[in-house]
Amino acid sequence: KAGVTQTPRYLIKTRGQQVTLSCSPISGHRSVSWYQQTPGQGLQFLFEYFSETQRNKGNFPGRFSGRQFSNSRSEMNVSTLELGDSALYLCASEGSGTGTNEQFFGPGTRLTVL
Amino acid sequence: AQSVTQPDIHITVSEGASLELRCNYSYGATPYLFWYVQSPGQGLQLLLKYFSGDTLVQGIKGFEAEFKRSQSSFNLRKPSVHWSDAAEYFCAVGAKGGSYIPTFGRGTSLIVHP
Lengths: 114, 114
What we know:
B: 6-stranded mixed β-sheet
C-alpha cells in the first residue's frame, strides 16, 4: 500500500504571495490532518478533514485554509504569506473505522518564505 | 484538555548504551498513546502504540514502552542504542473514535555518540 504523499517537497515563496500544498492519503483513508512544524512551536495542529468536511480546526488565522476532495486528497492554502509561515507542513491520514486512531504521516513540504 | 509533556529536550547517549525517553500525559480517561520518530527532513514514523491490554508494548526497531496509569507516564526504552537511532522522538496522546486530534509533546532530540 502506498504511503502518504505530499507535493511539492520544497517551496520557496516571498512575503505576500500565496501557496497551495497537496496531500494524497493512504488509499481508503478518509481523514486527513495538517500540521505545522517549527523549531520554536513544535507540531501544531492546523485542521482535519473527513469526507470533504472540515471536522476540526486548530488555532491558526484565516489565512490558512484547506479542502478535501471526493477522492480524499487534500490541499491546504496559505494566503498573504508571512516570514513566520516558514515551516515544515506535515499531512497525516487516518483510517476511519479501524478504531486505531493511528496517523500515518507524509514526508512534509518544506516552505521557506523570503 | 489532554496534554503531553516530554521533560527532556535533548538526550545524549553513547552507542550501545540503554535509553529511556520520558513522556507524561494528562487525559481524563484511558488514553491512546503513541511514540513517533522523525529523522531529519522526514515525516513522522510510528514506533509503537498503546490502546489497551498489556501495559508493556513492543514496537519497531527494538523499542518498547510501558504504560503506567498511576504515574500517567508512557516512557520509551531501548536496551542498546545504535547510531542510526539519532532522531527526534515525539510522544502523543489521542482519543478513541470520532473527531480525533492527537496532542503531541514538544519532542526529545536524541544524540548518539560513537
